[in-house]
Amino acid sequence: ASNLSSGTVATARMGSGTASSSTFLRGDNTWASAGGGAALDTDNYVKCGQRYTSAAATDGGTSPNDAWTTRNINYSWTNNGGFATVNTANSLVSLTSGTYYVRAKCCGVGVGYTQAQLYNFSQSSVILSSESSRMSSTTYNYNNVVVEGTFTIGSNDSVTVRQFSSTTRATYGFGRKLSTDSGISTSDYVEDIYFVLEIWKVS
């Protein structure tokens, strides 16, 4: 064929197969289905966790010695898509069957050895775990552990997040209010957040 100076080339002349909005032209001149998974979007998204207004001046709670603690879910920022029910009375999120992507961030203050888990309360089983970490048992040593990944459930199950601590830290083991610093007034900020659970339904 002669060189093109204008216009377009018919897709049938470019390669074999069927060209459409869901295919691409491979290097061997074949139209093939595009790969990839579902995007993470806020249409199918829930965000909840442990949050207090700055005026409440509330710490995150006591970490026990050598024990698992269910992280407190007392607040829901977003719940879109109709696939989740956030139960703040018992810190559970009920999910419909499907495949999910999750990210949970848990803070600790001087709790010693620690790990967080996404836990299937309905099936009494661990779904995903964070890295194992150590937060020095000195009073103000502050850090986070993060659970992140994809999981699938075949039935309607309730999940929660739990965190291990090896050191008892009264009152603020699972988060210390910002206004603890004498230079910061509760009127200088809006909220204290100690734990965030985000879940996207992928399919």
Structural features:
203 residues; mainly beta; seven-stranded antiparallel sheet; five-stranded antiparallel sheet; 2% helix
Fold and architecture overview:
With 203 residues, this protein is mostly beta strands. The chain contains 1 helix and 14 strands, in the order αββββββββββββββ. Strands 4, 6, 7, 9, 10, 11 and 13 form a 7-stranded antiparallel β-sheet that branches. It has a 5-stranded antiparallel β-sheet with strand order 5-3-14-8-12, with no helix packed on it. It has a two-stranded antiparallel ribbon with strand order 1-2. It is elongated, with a radius of gyration of 24 Å. The protein starts with 10 loop residues before the first helix and ends with a strand.
Low-confidence stretches: none
- Overall mean pLDDT: 89
C-alpha Rg (nearest Å):
24 Å
Number of beta-strand segments = 14
Order of helices and strands: HEEEEEEEEEEEEEE
Layout of secondary structure:
Layout: H1 11-14, E1 23-25, E2 31-33, E3 45-53, E4 67-70, E5 75-80, E6 84-87, E7 92-95, E8 98-109, E9 112-120, E10 125-129, E11 133-135, E12 142-153, E13 157-165, E14 191-201
Antiparallel strand pairs: 1-2, 3-5, 3-14, 4-13, 6-7, 7-13, 8-12, 8-14, 9-10, 9-11, 9-13
Short structural description:
The protein contains one helix and 14 strands.
